[in-house]
Amino acid sequence: MYKKMKLEGIVRIPPNELGNPLEEAVAKELRNKYEAVVDKTLGTIAAVLGADKIGDGHILAGDGAVYYDVIFDAIVFKPEMQEIIEGEVVEIVKFGAFLSLGPFDGLLHVSQITNEYLSYDEKNARLVSKESNKSLNEGDRLRARIIAISLNEKEPRESKIGLTMRQTGLGKLEWLEAERNTEVKARAKTEPKLDVKTDIKGGEKAKRGKKANAIIDNRQRKGDTDTEIVADVEKIDLPEKRTEIEASMKGEIKTDMNPEAK
Fold it and tell me: Which of 175, 207, 238 lies at the terminal end of a domain, its last residue?
């Protein structure tokens, strides 16, 4: 995940930069020194935002530069074990797919993509399932979980992040949307339709009016469940309740209201 952190460091301002404004020179050297640096504790520094506090300068014998202790703000990316991430497929190979996670690429091994057998289509650079005809291509958006992390401080490009999609709620975003639509349609077929004249809370007969009827019809056509529809329907006051409120505001509370007369 990305974090904004306040870090401490030392920057060397070379002689050719001493004529420039101190804040600009320090910011430039901070970026040169710290951006893209990998630390096993912090992660990788994705961007230096600028110096927050610049201490006194120090000169070393035989060196024409000036050294400053600096407290600075930075954006840091640190992958966490079991973290769920979303990213784009940047490369498909025979043994899996590489997923862009910002500063790093994560490896989604072919065995961690799905329970189905996947074959490598070298000509089209994709992984294909013969059972469900699912395919994984470059540019696809995926949701995966981090299951292995190995950060290399000396060679950042050698850092490795292992991923899996073989868990509920993970996979290609297109697959997840299709599964959700299938579940909604299946629920709509098995659940009973609402009686628009029945008060959902107590089962009492009460007309909700045209607005409520329209909401119910629309939500049922979309395949929403009774529980989901209730949330919208219950926002609409019964006619007699609304009339009571309006009357009380005028100081004329009526106890015998006839909602059908409205």
Answer: 175
Can you tell me the distance from the alpha carbon of 145 to that of 143, in angstroms, rounded to the nearest whole number?
7
How far is 74 from 49, CA to CA, in rounded Å?
5
Total of domains in the chain: 3
Please list, in sequence order, all residues whose beta carbon lies within 8 angstroms of the beta carbon of residue 178, skipping any fewer than 6 positions away.
none
Domain shared by 159 and 216, yes or no: no
CA distance 92 to 126: 6
Helix, strand or coil, per DSSP, at residue 183: helix
Q: Report the candidate in 1, 33, 3 with the shortest Cα–Cα distance to residue 17.
A: 33
User: Which residue stretches of 19-122 are H helix?
Assistant: 22-34
pLDDT tens digit sequence for 93-114 = 999 999 998 888 999 999 999 9
In this predicted structure, what is the pLDDT of residue 238? 52
Calculate the alpha carbon distances from 196 to 116, 218, 226, 233, 239 in Å: 45, 12, 11, 10, 15
Q: pTM of the prediction?
A: 0.63
Same domain, 165 and 242: no
Predicted pLDDT of residue 103? 86
Which residues have a Cβ under 8 Å from the Cβ of 225 and sit 6 or more positions away?
187, 188, 191
b/e per residue, 210-221, with b = 16+ CB within 10 A? eebeebbeebbe
Write out the two tokens for 2: 């990305």
